[in-house]
Specification:
The complex is a heterotrimer. Chain A is mainly alpha-helical. Chain A has eleven helices and two strands. In chain A, helix 1 packs antiparallel against helix 8, helix 2 packs parallel to helix 4 and helix 3 runs antiparallel to helix 8. The longest helix of chain A has 29 residues. Chain A is globular, with a radius of gyration of 19 Å. The N and C termini of chain A lie far apart (about 65 Å). Chain B is of the alpha/beta class. Chain B contains 17 helices and 22 strands. In chain B, strand 4 and strand 5 form a beta hairpin. In chain B, helix 14 runs parallel beside helix 15. The longest helix of chain B is centred in the middle third of the chain and has 16 residues. Chain B is globular, with a radius of gyration of 25 Å. By secondary structure, chain C is mainly alpha-helical. Chain C has 15 helices and no strands. The radius of gyration of chain C is 22 Å and the shape is globular. Classes of the chains: A mainly alpha, B alpha/beta, C mainly alpha. The interface between A and C is large, with 52 and 54 residues.
Chain lengths: ~300, ~525, ~375
């Protein structure tokens, strides 16, 4: 029992950045834009958040900087894919390469001489709810974890019960209908990408400001790609995305645990699971996967 | 009816140009509350452009638009909606995965939060006010086309439109749904709405409108009160010549030179036999319903049908682009349905599809497009014989009078030249069986005559030609036999000299046909 | 009219990839514009980091060409980029967005690391041939699943190829940390390949190896196949208009499938080159994103053979130059990656200029 609770606690921790990033990606895709810039956005935001916290001495400043960076990268993606109508695959990858390049460039520029990676010397602590009970380990999480969990019902509500959610959905399914209804499709897509980028930034911030308290080259390490997989696995719905993220977190936590216990197991197989499961889901659903119908299609008014 | 009410929307000297082409010239138009105005014109007369200007999607180059007597600039559909203008376009602007109510309130949600029961109640109230039968909670995805159209109308009404424009609203409807639509429109008119219905069907004009404005080549060529207009007069204005189907049928033979059809014994065996062809789409809707016919060498068989009655699907099946769900096509007794396009071409089936851009790759050169269909003939061990390709291209360009160089990209050519490329590629192989759809759509007079000559040539060299065209005049002029399709079925089969145009027209409109399902 | 509109809309593409259809002067001008804009943007970055942009550009673009070793090093760097660039270009030409060159490269490297140590008894030419074929097959095999899913189940290839990159990296990591771990040093490093399987140097006293020649041959083959063969014409037709290609009798499925496998195979060769020509064993970081950079090479090269060759050379120069700039001026070598990524985005944007041509006229006439 205790083992399970500890495991679940670890799973929640691991799942947090994936969940935040996946929710951000979900917003973008719901509006009709596949944002492959996710990996680079997370890395750059993780870095900027780290630098801001390091320079200012305040984690909160770092957090704000990371969110702003994510939103900025989202804006760039929107500029390329919405305003200019460029190919979403390639512009997204370009943003990932750019974000990664910028982060590593400035990291080397600012901290290049140091032989050990600089540490913040502080990080967001864990908030304990119900201390002293059996569930204490599970409910002793980073604030961002609670926030991410809270975000799930909030976003579910936004998608189902608000005008913004309706417009978002419609922009991803039939942008022409949105345009004809007198709503600016570009604006909706910009909002989705900027908000989504901010969440990706938050995911990056979690890694450097909460989990590690430092920045390293491999801090994101493919988590953005996992998030993309989980959005599909989660069928573009917040609750199912949470489920996917937890599943991933659980497998990862289990693997870490087994490794620590000295169980000889090629953990890479476990780590590959979320990818393989996603591919399987895609293969089974085929084109019937509930892809937003207008995903990847830049919107242009006919003939205009 | 002593005073004419103030127009809801007026156009004054509206002109719209696209490059060198003038799509609309100096249009004046008024539409008043409580009337249904029919905008009649052939394809390409400028009807859709006019709609888009009124709905804020295009800006006029000249002239002005007045709403309620006040000059306005409509920069976007949002402006048009705000001015009380609603549009039901041919392609429904609906989100299939949302409910009716959600679709209706999209863009006008009435606050940041979406109160479902409230919006559903409001939408239902609008629907009831105008007598529209729609369930607010239904998913649009699961609705029939006719019901989706009602949602589109409801969308406009819910935004308090004073003018409702419907662009070819019956093109996608069954006759029953069409009649239902007209009843709805009558109701809207009685409630004081102004309605513009865009159509090229005379029957609809007569059925539903009070006034009709005829457009041709981007100009208003006539205006009549419907009650006082005759169909023949309107048709003459629309087509712009004394060439009504009935007359042209009697004038067949001129100006085209054609030999009378005389079947030699050899030609008494059918070349093509379609046997009980049936095609259903993914949702199980029947598009082709038990279609059977024979084609003999040396004849042109024309298919007459209103758009959307299965003729496109028939072409898809015959050209190898769709697999029939049941039934088969035999060519000289051998089954060819279901064969891939490459094999059909090899077996002597010449194919000219409805959308010519579906037959050419715009970003490939004229030379490549002319040879790709029979690329095997220009290939040695996988290596292209550039010289042979060039020679073939030069030959076909000269023979078919294509105004292009072999290296030009096809998408830079005009529609007529693209059609010539498709014809050249197809007909130069002397196919036994030619399937051709909408052969002259969008072509100018010269190109049209050219295409007609080439098709008659096929007949005279003993090929069997199946021609689908939405231009009834064309069908009647070229065909030795006319098949009429309606609702995915063949409902009439006439020899050329027995064609009764009135009867064909009725059959096309689904009248005198036992309605199926 | 009502019925043709949807197909016409499907055929209409909002953007086009290549420089190919523009007049020749524009074809030359656009890449130049892209480079100028990229460097203008980069100079802001450089100035912000306290260096003189002109000095940096000198180090980046000129200095590597002034010395023999660095000149040859550009060729060494260009080798995998030529291959991944061709690989990506093949796929993109067929309208198949293979983002998986990175994983396919590693698949080839994996095959090389597996075969290499087992070829000790073989004559060198035969061993090298086995290595090449092995890499080709392995790369194609890794590309198979997404291709099959795309062709038979319409599963978007971008996501699947991308995800398989991560799977491949895990697989490589698993092997290197498991069965292939160096038993003596404990390093995650595969056994050294046999001498017979090593790619010979093609230029004395340099690291330029057989892979470079293979890459050049493949660039030439790419040009030849695309412009001079039956398959190449079909490939282009499918990429530019699958429906029309099908109408003209091209088997779209077979073409896309074959293009995808070919693309994977060529990317696999890049992996073989790095193992057999440079390292002689497999380590985890054998490719600093060569697979992704291949997308930049292909895009910037306009999906043309010559363009790909020039683009690969240019990006390799920036790669080598950024190391040199880092050494001489203390500018982080990651500047190279920033410049390359910016170049990709700017290229995409500049290609928009290519979109507006008199070409649209005919379409309009019919539409009105």
């Amino acid at each position: 029992m205790e083992f399970l609770i500890v495991l679940a606690a670890a799973a929640l921790r691991v799942a947090t950045p994936i969940l935040l990033a996946a929710l951000g990606e979900m917003l973008a895709e719901r509006a009709g834009v596949l944002n492959l810039g996710i990996e680079g956005t997370m890395l750059l935001a993780a870095f900027v958040g780290f630098v801001a916290a390091h320079q200012s001495g305040s984690l909160w400043v770092g957090l704000a900087a990371a969110i702003a960076t994510g939103a900025l990268m989202g804006t760039l993606m929107a500029l390329l894919s919405v305003t200019l109508g460029l190919n979403q695959h390639v512009s997204g990858l370009g943003i990932t390469l750019l974000g990664g390049g910028l982060a590593l460039y400035f990291f080397r520029l600012l901290y290049g001489g140091a032989s050990t990676p600089p540490s913040l010397g502080q990080s967001f602590g864990q908030l304990s709810v119900l201390p002293g009970t059996t569930l204490a380990p599970l409910l002793s999480q980073y604030g961002l974890t609670y926030f991410a969990l809270l975000l799930v019902p909030v976003l579910a509500f936004v998608l189902r019960r608000t005008a913004f959610g309706l417009r978002l959905h419609a922009s991803g399914e039939n942008p022409e209908a949105v345009d004809i209804a007198g709503v600016n499709v570009y604006r909706v897509r910009y909002q989705a990408l900027v908000l989504g980028g901010a969440l990706m930034g938050l995911a990056g911030a979690f890694l450097t400001l909460a989990q590690l308290g430092a920045f390293t080259h491999g801090v994101v390490n493919g988590r953005g790609w996992v998030a993309i997989a989980i959005v599909i696995f989660g069928n573009w719905r917040p609750v199912r995305i949470l489920l996917g993220a937890l599943l991933f977190g659980f497998v990862q936590a289990l693997q870490l645990r087994l490794q620590a216990e000295g169980v000889a197991l090629p953990y890479e197989i476990l780590l590959a699971l979320p990818y393989l499961v996603t591919i399987l889901v895609l293969a089974l659903a085929g084109r019937n996967a509930n892809y937003p119908a207008a995903l990847l299609k830049p919107y242009r008014r006919e003939g205009g | 009816m002593t005073t004419t009410p103030e127009p809801v929307v007026s156009l004054r000297s509206v002109t719209k140009r696209f490059g060198a082409l003038t799509a609309l010239a100096d249009i004046d138009l008024d539409v008043r509350p409580g009337e249904i105005l029919a905008l009649l014109g052939e394809n390409g007369a400028g009807k859709t452009t006019l709609t888009k200007i009124v709905y804020g999607m295009y800006q006029p180059d000249d002239g002005e638009l007045r709403v309620g007597g006040v000059p306005v600039r409509l920069r976007s559909p949002a402006d048009a909606i705000a001015s009380g203008i609603g549009l039901v376009s041919q392609h429904f602007a609906l989100v299939p995965s949302l409910t009716v109510a959600e679709n209706v309130v999209l863009g006008r949600e009435g606050g940041a939060l979406l109160d479902r029961s409230k919006i559903e109640g409001a939408v239902l109230a609008t629907a009831e006010r105008y007598g529209l039968d729609v369930a607010p909670r239904a998913l649009v995805r699961a609705m029939s086309v006719g019901a989706q159209q009602r949602v589109e109308i409801l969308k406009a009404l819910h935004r308090d439109c004073k003018l409702l424009i419907l662009d070819e609203p019956t093109a996608v409807l069954t006759p029953q749904d069409g009649e239902r639509l007209f009843a709805t429109l009558d109701g809207l008119r009685e409630r004081g709405l102004a309605v513009i219905i865009i159509t090229h069907k005379l029957r609809e004009v007569m059925r539903v409108s009070q006034r009709v404005v005829v457009l041709r080549h981007g100009r208003v060529v006539g205006e009549r009160a419907t009650a006082g207009a005759s169909q023949a007069e309107l048709a003459r204005m629309m087509i712009g010549r004394e060439q009504l189907p009935v007359e042209s049928a009697s004038r067949r033979g001129t100006p085209l030179q054609r030999t009378p059809l005389q079947r030699t014994p050899l030609q008494r065996t059918p070349l093509v036999e379609a046997r009980r062809l049936t095609l259903r789409d993914k949702r199980g809707v029947t598009l082709l319903d038990d279609v059977s016919f024979d084609l003999y060498p040396g004849e042109i068989v024309g298919v007459a049908a209103v758009a959307g009655n299965g003729q496109s699907e028939l072409v898809s099946v015959l050209t190898g682009m769709a697999q029939p769900s049941a039934g088969e096509v035999l060519l000289s007794g051998e089954r060819v349905s279901g064969l891939p396009p490459a094999q059909l071409a090899r077996l002597g089936v010449g194919r000219v599809p409805e959308d010519r851009l579906e037959a050419v790759v715009g970003n490939l050169s004229v030379r490549e497009n002319l040879t790709l269909e029979h690329i095997g003939a220009f290939t040695r061990a996988g290596h292209l014989d550039g010289r042979a390709m060039a020679a073939e291209a030069d030959r076909l360009i000269a023979e078919y009078q294509v105004k292009a160089k072999p290296g030009d990209l096809v998408r830079t050519l005009s529609g007529g030249n693209i059609q010539k490329i498709v014809l050249a590629r197809t007909l130069s192989r002397k196919p036994r069986f030619v399937v051709v759809a909408q052969p002259t759509r969008g072509l100018d007079v010269g190109a049209t005559a050219y295409v007609h000559e080439r098709l008659l040539e096929q007949r005279d060299r003993n090929a069997a030609v199946l021609m689908v065209s939405e231009d009834l005049d064309e069908v009647l002029r070229l065909s030795d036999r006319v098949l009429v399709m309606y609702g995915g079925r063949i409902v009439g089969d006439f020899a050329a000299d027995e064609v009764d145009v009135g009867r064909v027209g009725l059959l096309m409109a689904g009248e005198g046909v036992a309605v199926h399902g | 009219m009502a019925r043709s509109a949807p197909t016409a809309r499907a055929a209409r593409r909002p953007w086009r990839w290549e420089w190919g259809s523009a007049p020749w002067w524009l074809r030359l001008a656009l890449p130049m514009i892209a480079i100028l804009v990229t460097f203008a943007l980069a100079s802001v970055l450089i100035a912000a980091s306290g260096a003189n942009p002109l000095d940096v550009f000198y180090e980046l673009l000129i200095r590597p060409l002034t010395r023999r070793t660095s000149r040859l090093e550009v060729l060494v760097r260009a080798t995998p980029l030529l291959l991944t660039g061709v690989a990506v270009a093949i796929a993109f030409r067929a309208g198949y967005y293979n983002i998986g060159a990175e994983g396919q490269l590693y698949a080839g490297a994996l095959a090389a690391a597996f075969l290499g140590p087992r070829l000790g008894e073989w004559a060198p030419p035969a061993a090298v041939a086995v290595m090449l074929v092995g890499g080709l097959v392995a790369g194609a095999a890794w590309a198979l699943l997404p291709a099959v899913l795309k062709v038979y189940a319409k599963v978007d290839e971008v996501v699947t190829t991308l995800l398989l990159n991560s799977v491949m990296l895990l697989l490589v990591g698993g092997l290197l940390n498991g069965p292939w771990r160096d038993p003596v040093s404990g390093w995650p490093r595969s056994p050294t390949i046999a001498a017979a399987a090593e790619f010979p140097q093609v230029i004395a006293r340099s690291r330029v190896h057989l892979g470079f020649v293979v890459a050049l041959v493949l660039v030439a083959l790419f040009w030849w196949v695309l412009s001079r063969t039956h398959f190449g014409l079909e490939l282009r037709a499918v990429g530019m208009g699958a429906t029309a290609a099908r109408f003209m009798g091209v088997s779209v499925r077979a073409t896309v499938l074959f293009a995808a496998l070919l693309s994977g195979g060529v990317a696999g060769l890049a992996g073989v080159g790095e193992v057999a020509g440079i390292h002689h064993y497999l380590i985890e970081g054998i490719s600093p994103d060569y697979g992704y950079t291949g997308i930049i090479v292909a895009t910037f090269g306009g999906l043309h053979a010559l363009g790909v060759a020039v683009a690969a050379g240019f990006l390799a120069l920036v790669d080598v130059g950024s190391t040199s700039a880092s050494r001489a001026l203390g500018i982080p070598a990651y500047l190279g990656q920033v410049v390359q990524a910016t170049l990709l985005l700017v290229t995409l944007a500049v290609l928009l200029l290519n979109r507006y041509r008199p070409a649209r006229r005919s379409r309009r006439e019919e539409r009105v």
